[in-house]
Request: fold
Amino acid sequence: NAGVTQTPKFQVLKTGQSMTLQCAQDMNHEYMSWYRQDPGMGLRLIHYSVGAGITDQGEVPNGYNVSRSTTEDFPLRLLSAAPSQTSVYFCASSPTGGGFGANVLTFGAGSRLTVL
Amino acid sequence: DAKTTQPNSMESNEEEPVHLPCNHSTISGTDYIHWYRQLPSQGPEYVIHGLTSNVNNRMASLAIAEDRKSSTLILHRATLRDAAVYYCILRDHSGGSNYKLTFGKGTLLTVNP
Reply:
């Protein structure tokens, strides 16, 4: 049981390049989400999904795309990277059944992205 | 809009108890109170959660005010490994629009040897 796995751990991009941050979980969690964390800031929600085929925007969705074709995977795509997207990205998942509020979030270890 | 309010930082000495406060004056009846912590250079990890009653686990205790407008995370004997940012968040039992979970800046706990 690996939990939430994020790849890559580190990535350097040039402005305008595209890339995908991968997130996979093996706990059969319906809810998955992406956060970014900037120095001295809390976690800000980018996008989330409550199941395969269902995604929605968080508080800072601009510049990012997501899709959820399987329960296990929730990739985050940067179509044209900008220096403002330099950040540490965290993926998190949780069950939704049985009462959402009581379910615990499990986070990945993070992906550190630098855009030059 | 932030739903919880925490002090920016707190300091403690090793082996002493630590009480980390969180105010959530607009909490609804279906909101669970969750605490997570983030160790340096790591992803956040779950600490404890509760609805109305005080809760204990191997990591910490959660004391919830009778009116539920505030709660306190209690670390009974702080160790150097407890130095982290502690986040208090609310999770709506009904889900829905509250799938947009928001984390504030949390409380940076420093533990002195």
